[in-house]
Write a structure and sequence with these properties.
The complex is a heterodimer.
Chain A: E1 33-34, H1 43-49, H2 51-72, H3 77-98, H4 102-107, H5 111-135, H6 141-158, H7 170-185, H8 191-218, H9 220-241, H10 243-268, E2 274-275, H11 288-291
Antiparallel strand pairs in A: 1-2
Helix pairs in contact in A: 1-10, 2-8, 2-9, 3-8, 5-8, 6-7, 7-8, 8-9, 9-10
Chain B: H1 5-32, H2 34-37, H3 47-72, E1 78-83, E2 93-98, E3 104-108, E4 113-117, E5 123-128, E6 141-146, E7 152-156, E8 161-166, E9 175-181, E10 185-190, E11 196-200, E12 205-211, E13 217-223, E14 229-234, E15 240-244, E16 249-252, E17 258-261, H4 262-266, E18 273-278, E19 284-288, E20 293-297, E21 304-307, E22 314-319, E23 325-329, E24 334-338, H5 356-369, E25 372-377, E26 386-393, E27 398-406, H6 411-425, E28 429-438, H7 444-456, E29 462-468, E30 475-479, E31 491-496, H8 498-503, E32 505-506, H9 517-535, H10 537-541, E33 552-553, H11 560-591, H12 599-607, H13 609-625, H14 633-660, H15 665-692, H16 702-739, H17 745-759, H18 761-788, E34 791-794, E35 799-802, H19 807-857, H20 860-868, E36 873-881, E37 890-898, H21 901-908, H22 921-930, H23 940-944
Parallel strand pairs in B: 25-27, 25-31, 28-29, 31-37, 32-36
Antiparallel strand pairs in B: 1-24, 2-3, 3-4, 4-5, 6-7, 7-8, 8-9, 10-11, 11-12, 12-13, 14-15, 15-16, 16-17, 18-19, 19-20, 20-21, 22-23, 23-24, 26-27, 26-28, 27-33, 29-30, 34-35, 36-37
The chains are: A mainly alpha, B alpha+beta.
Protein name (chain B): Phosphatidylinositol N-acetylglucosaminyltransferase subunit Q
Keywords (chain B): Glycosyltransferase, Membrane, Repeat, Transferase, Transmembrane, Transmembrane helix
Transmembrane segments (chain B): 572-591, 642-661, 707-726, 733-760, 766-788, 809-833, 839-868
């Protein structure tokens, strides 16, 4: 069908027009746009953000190394408990000091609730520690190691690094870490060891990331320093256990914090997304008010 | 029929009017007809008068036509409802077609079937609308018709195709052939030339085409410019009629020219015309979907509303050549059969409504078609001459002869006697004919006398049977006084054993769904005969030594002496029953007393199977001791069955008791019981020791294993000490309990089952502990697994939702989850072992209960009858053809077919108190897996609810 010269084609469906259904006019390709949603990254910013991954890797590393020392009997549980207690108290003070108590006021959580949680936690762990010690007696050590490794890997995968993705589940991540720590703690020689180990796991997997997040938001410079110090501590600890492991771990950390951001920015150049009127419709308006 | 005075006056008036019209017109015609031949003028008749007369005559003719039509047809005469053979799975019936042989073809909305029904509504054949070779390729027929060559053709609107079913393929089943693509066919028909007519709904056309032998379409023509044609039907003039959706019905000629539309011709307004068809007189019938009517449009006269009510959504209509009108009612999903012209089809209908004069005509016409059956008792074959008395079953044209009355008799006395018999037995016994048994050659005078008897006892027809000498072949004839057709009808003589037929009880086929109507008719025919003989039992009570005014020959029982004992027992049974009832009411009163209803006791009663069995037997005794007479055969048999089963049960119980109490067997039993219980306990201890080690190399939690093992060992220790405490008393207890065997074998078996339950109580306890522990773990694990994933069970919405937990909740939940997960194998093993032990005990108890059930439910009296007097329970009859001679009636011997063993048991099975396991196998497995308790106890209370 030939377009009638007198009438202009309109992109509407509610009017009968003398054009075939698949007709478009010359404006069609004029609306073509490329890489609309692409974001430009700065190298330094990306390196800064990768700090979260480095931190979590180092946490796992420090936990495993600590367990190693405990298992080998080179670290007394009392000593570890003392160090952990002191660092926890320090962290607790720091947590409120960093933002001047603004976060606490917002969440409305009292210190009594904190104390209660701590007590419940300590009581349960202490009460169950004899059970934990004998829990996996009849199961072979290799099975326990494999299970713990899988669980820690799952912890790293599902951890909330700040990205907005479906796979992220901080609950599952934390539960997997606790499971792994309970498994590993059940291999330790005495129930006190198991108690201290589980406590330490809670501090490093549950409390430490909270403090990190706050530090990152409030004082970025300080956060970089803490990250570097933490990574160095982890490396030092690993080096005392296995030098090959330390070398490999160093290269992994470097790759994550330097190589991966570089690759991301490099490959950004080859991005080629096209957008235009053929895209499916997007609802931009916030519809939640209609749901009420 | 309404015979009021007013109606009769109306009738008279109508007839008089028509008759006067006829006379006047004939007279006028005779005067007027010479006008044409002679040259005379028209007298004083003016042109105006002729015109006026012509106009009036025209309207008069119309009125007469209307009156004729209205006299001829009958409104809303529903004869039958045939349910949709497809069932209610698909939509309602839509298309219908009636072929010349009277079979009906039916399609339903969105159902891939074409059903062929007989004129009475039985499904003769079901054609699945599925393309051969492609299993999944079904189509949905909209309307159906039958071609000249007898093949089924359907219109398929979904695929826009016409299909023809070719039954003559190499495949035995036949196949569907797609003959033509049409836009959207709805109605289909075949015109008088054999061409297929298709109404194309969307294009507004009616296509007509012929079909050759290779299923090629020829001579395609189309009629355009129709507004949504739906149904199409051939018209009497060689053309066709088509109905338009929410429009008109149009009639076309054979050359496809529009002849007229019905609304303009008859001045009729349609709502939504649906099915159209043409009856044998050439009138067009139209179903109106909106107004829910069916109208008939005669060639002359105004339309007649044949069906005005009882339709919900009429779709297709069809007329059979027998004058029936079939309306497919999609709203009620059935085919309704109407008889709009009953006057024409009266000869096929039931005669009850017709008058006496018609009745004679009906009989004579019917008898020519039907043979007369005479059921003759074989015990009367040597009776002396006399008259036959019995019952005439006019629907079946058969005579059941019950007895022979000998000469000499006084007719009045016979009539009196018969009326008395009739009053007592409620069977219409009458004199049916005469019987002559002449040892010598035939006497002329006697036969005349016998014929004369027919005038005294008027019966229609009068049956005359005569036996000559010792001849096997009797001559048989009937006399029709009122009939004007001298046709010789055929007679079949059926001999029956009066005693057996009287005593037997006919079991009509129960599965009426599968048996056809014809079979059911046969069964009712037979049951009428059985009924007649059984009801006239009173007639047979008089024995041959009775000196009454009338001498009869029929079956007589010989065992008069034995019956004295029976009479005595009957007399004695009444007080015995009363005594029993009194006793029973006392016992049941005690049982129902409130003292026994308190919680621990009532709980105990419900758990002991002995109590259940005793209650069941108590009910049985109550049923037996009811003083009233059993109302029907089923109740009688039930009573007898209960009585015999009770007797045999008690007899077996006493036998068992006598065996037990001889040679101190009770003592031996008691001596062996304690060691057996000890042995079981020891075995269990060994099993627990094994479980406390590392059984089968399983990864058990040592600490929990030890705890559980010690717990159970302590239980067994307790148990053994109790048993030993009991051991001195066991013999005494057994001795007293054994006495209860005199109440019946079933009671003894129930006691055995209870003893087993008591002796294995420790196993039950272990099972309960294991199951509870396991159940707790399973539920805990499943709930904590949700927490582990950050989800929770939403009780309100019955689904799993995501949830954000606190840190301490997460920690404790995961800690418990880990602990429960590692402890699960230990608990599961204990649970498994004890469940297996429990199941073993349950199976043993179940077998005992099965035996009890068998004894309780087996209808022993019926089985004894089936073994010894198989004719008492008849499933039907069979006829054996006896020797035959030309010119003499066919002789058959009726023998009774006994009921098969399976159906005896099925019919007379006694109900039992126990219901079979509530759970199906799948739910049982699920319960076992989840650790829910399974009870073998019978749930009587549940069943009663």
């Amino acid at each position: 069908m030939e377009p009638v010269p007198g009438r202009r084609w309109q992109k509407v469906l509610y009017e009968r027009q003398p054009f075939p259904d698949n007709y478009v006019d010359q404006r069609f390709l004029g609306e073509l746009r490329k890489n609309v949603h692409a974001r430009r990254y700065r190298y330094q910013a990306v390196v800064f953000q990768s700090g979260a991954v480095v931190q979590q890797l180092c946490s796992v590393c420090i936990f495993v190394v600590t367990w190693w020392y405990m298992d080998a009997g080179m670290l007394s549980p009392q000593g570890l408990f003392g160090v952990a207690l002191v660092s926890s108290l320090l962290g607790y003070v720091l947590f409120d000091a960093v933002d001047g108590g603004a976060g606490r006021r917002e969440s409305g959580r009292t210190r009594w609730a904190d104390l209660k949680s701590t007590l419940v936690f300590a009581a349960f762990t202490y009460g169950f520690s004899p059970v934990l010690k004998t829990l996996t007696e009849s199961i072979s050590t290799d099975t326990i190691y494999a299970m713990s490794a899988l669980m820690l890997l799952g912890h790293l995968i599902f951890f909330d690094y700040g990205a907005n993705a479906a796979i992220v589940s901080s609950t599952l991540s934390l539960n997997m870490a606790i499971f792994a720590s309970v498994c590993l703690a059940s291999r330790l020689p005495r129930s006190l060891h198991a108690f201290v180990m589980v406590t330490f796991a809670m501090q490093i997997f549950a409390l430490w990331p909270m403090l990190q997040k706050k530090l990152k938001a409030q004082t970025p410079r300080c956060y970089v320093g803490v990250t570097v110090l933490f990574a160095l501590a982890a490396l030092a600890g690993l080096a005392t256990v296995s030098s090959v492991g330390a070398v490999l771990f160093t290269s992994l950390l470097l790759a994550i914090s330097c190589l991966c951001p570089y690759c991301l920015i490099r490959f950004q150049l080859t991005k080629d997304n096209i957008h235009g009127p053929w895209d499916e419709a997007e609802i931009k308006e916030d519809l939640s008010r209609f749901l009420m | 029929m309404d015979y009021t005075l007013e109606t009769s006056q109306q009738k008279e008036k109508l007839l008089k009017t028509i008759y006067t019209l006829q006379l006047k017109s004939i007279a006028t015609f005779q005067t007027a007809s010479p006008l044409l031949s002679s040259q005379r003028g028209m007298g004083m008749v003016t042109q105006h008068q002729v015109h006026q007369l012509a106009d009036k005559a025209k309207s008069l003719c119309e009125d007469l036509d209307n009156v004729k039509n209205l006299l001829h047809y009958c409104q809303d005469n529903l004869v039958q409802r045939i349910p949709n053979p497809t069932g209610s799975r698909y939509g309602g019936v839509s298309g219908i077609h009636c072929s010349l042989d009277g079979s009906i073809y039916v399609t339903a909305e969105s159902a891939p079937w074409v059903h062929v029904l007989s004129s009475t509504g039985q499904t003769l054949r079901s054609l699945s609308c599925r393309q051969t070779g492609k299993e999944s390729d079904t189509f949905l027929p909209e309307d159906v018709t039958v071609t000249r060559t007898g093949m089924v053709a359907v219109a398929d609107m979904m695929n826009g195709a016409i299909w023809v079913f070719n039954p003559h393929t190499s495949l035995s089943k036949g196949e569907w052939i797609k003959i033509r693509k049409v836009g959207s066919p709805r109605g289909i028909g075949v015109d008088s030339m054999g061409k297929i007519l298709v109404a194309d709904y969307a294009q507004g056309q009616v296509h007509s085409f012929a079909l050759d032998y290779a299923f090629k379409t020829l001579n395609i023509h189309s009629v355009p410019n129709l507004q949504g044609p739906r149904y199409v039907s051939p018209a009497p003039n060689g053309g066709f009629v088509v109905s338009e959706e929410c429009g008109d019905v149009k009639v076309f000629t054979s050359s496809r020219k529009l002849l007229c539309s019905l609304s303009s011709k008859y001045g009729h307004r349609f709502g939504n015309p649906a099915g159209v068809c043409v009856d044998m007189d050439g009138s067009i019938l139209v179903a109106d979907e909106q107004r829910r009517t069916v109208h008939l449009f005669p060639e002359r006269g105004s339309p007649v509303c044949l069906v005005s009510t009882r339709l919900r959504r009429p779709a297709g209509v069809a007329c059979s050549s027998f004058g029936h009108l079939f309306v497919a009612d999609a709203g009620e999903n059935c085919v309704k059969v109407f008889s709009p012209a009953p006057a024409a089809s009266r000869s096929n209908r039931s005669p009850e409504a017709a008058g006496v004069a018609e009745r004679a005509v009906y009989h004579s016409s019917r008898i020519a078609a039907m043979v007369l059956k005479v059921f003759f008792p074989s015990c009367c074959s040597s009776a002396e001459s006399g008259i036959l008395i019995g019952r005439w079953i006019s629907e079946q044209n058969s005579a059941v002869i019950l007895a022979v009355v000998h000469f000499p008799f006084i007719p009045v006395q016979v009539k009196q006697y018969l009326s008395e018999v009739q009053r007592v037995t409620k069977v219409s016994v009458s004199v049916l004919g005469s019987w002559s048994n002449s040892k010598q050659e035939k006497e002329e005078s006697l036969s005349e006398f016998l014929e004369d008897l027919g005038t005294i006892f008027s019966h229609e027809p009068w049956i005359q049977i005569s036996k000559e000498g010792d001849g096997k072949f009797w001559s048989c004839s009937t006399l029709q006084k009122h009939s004007n057709s001298p046709k010789e009808e055929e007679i079949i003589l059926v001999y029956y054993d009066q005693r057996k037929v009287m005593l037997s009880y006919l079991h009509p086929p129960s599965d009426t769904a599968t048996s056809t109507d014809h079979k059911a008719d046969d069964a009712s025919e037979l049951s009428a005969i059985f009924d007649t003989v059984a009801k006239s039992r009173i007639l047979f009570m008089t024995d041959r030594y009775d000196d009454g005014p009338i001498k009869l020959t029929h079956w007589q029982s010989d065992g008069v002496e034995a019956s004295i004992i029976v009479e005595l027992m009957k007399q004695a049974s009444v007080p015995a029953c009363m005594l029993l009832t009194l006793l029973l009411s006392l016992i049941s009163g005690v049982c129902r007393s409130r003292v026994l209803k308190f919680w621990p006791l009532s709980f105990l009663w419900s758990k002991l199977s002995t109590c259940e069995q005793l209650g069941h037997r108590l009910q049985h005794l109550q049923v037996i001791s009811i003083n009233k007479k059993a109302q029907n055969q089923t109740q009688l048999m039930r009573k007898a069955n209960i009585f015999v089963s009770l007797l045999i049960d008690v007899a077996l119980g006493i036998l068992l008791m006598s065996w037990l109490y001889r040679k101190n067997r009770i003592g031996h039993l008691a001596d062996t019981l304690i060691p057996v219980a000890d042995h079981v306990a020891e075995e269990l201890q060994d099993l627990l020791q094994w479980l406390m080690g590392a059984p089968a190399g399983l990864k058990m939690n040592r600490a929990l294993d030890q705890v559980l093992g010690r717990f159970f060992l302590y239980h067994i220790h307790l148990w053994i000490s109790y048993i030993h405490l009991m051991s001195p008393f066991i013999e005494m207890i057994l001795w007293y309990v054994g006495l209860s065997a005199c109440l019946g074998l079933t009671v003894a078996l129930c006691i055995l089952s209870d003893i087993i339950a008591l002796l294995t109580f420790h196993i039950y306890c272990f099972y309960v502990y294991g199951a509870r522990l396991y159940c707790l773990k399973i539920y805990g694990l499943s709930s904590l697994w949700r927490l582990f994933r950050g989800k929770k069970w939403n009780v309100l919405r019955q689904r799993v939702d995501s949830c954000s937990y606190d840190l301490d909740q997460l920690f404790i939940g995961t800690l418990l989850f880990t602990i429960l997960l590692f402890l699960l194998p230990t608990t599961a093993l204990y649970y498994l072992v004890f469940t297996l032990l429990r199941l073993l005990v349950v199976i043993v108890q179940g077998l005992i209960h099965l035996l009890v059930d068998l004894i309780d439910s087996l209808p022993l009296y019926s089985i004894i009858l089936w073994l010894c007097r198989s004719y008492r329970l008849a499933a039907g009859v069979k006829f054996r053809v006896l020797e035959q001679q030309d010119g003499k009636p066919l002789r058959l011997l009726m023998q009774i077919n006994p009921l098969s063993y399976g159906s005896v048991v099925q019919t007379y099975r006694l109900p039992t108190y126990s219901c079979y396991p509530k759970d199906s196998w799948a739910s049982l497995c699920k319960k076992l897996f989840l650790g829910e308790l399974i009870y073998p106890w019978k749930h009587k209370g549940d069943k009663q609810d």
